[in-house]
Amino acid sequence: MAMEGVKLKALDDKPEIHGEEWIYDAWCEMAGDRAGSMGPVPTPWTAIDRYAQRYGIEGDTFEVFVHCLRSLDMGLIEYHDDKQKKQGKVEKKDDDSS
């Protein structure tokens, strides 16, 4: 995204993480589980749980793991939506529908 010159608030406000790169690696490993036909979707709970069971991620570490994965998911979805809007491919939803 940085190479494309895209600026996202989530990326500007990101914390510096040292020693927790494994979370990003895990998120990348689960990319195939996020296959959405209309664009990216959040990582399914079953994929997160299965990954955590395989690698013994439990307790508070599991809660942090889930929170971080959900944040990465939302960043990806926000990026995709912004890109689609710039290309004029997303219609505005009408909040006043009755």
Structure description:
The chain has helices at residues 9-12, 21-29, 45-55, 59-86. With 98 residues, the protein is an all-alpha fold. The radius of gyration is 16 Å and the shape is globular.
Key words describing this protein structure:
98 residues, mainly alpha, 4 helices
- Main sheet? none
Reading the helices and strands in chain order gives HHHH
Give the termini distance in whole angstroms: 38 Å
Number of strands: 0
Strand content: under 5%
Using the alpha-carbon principal axes, give the shape.
globular
| Helix vs. strand class | mainly alpha
Averaging pLDDT over every residue, what do you get? 81
**Alpha carbon gyration radius:** 16 Å
Runs in which pLDDT lies below 50 for 5 or more consecutive residues are none
**Count of alpha/pi helices:** 4
How much helix is in the residues? Answer: 40-55%
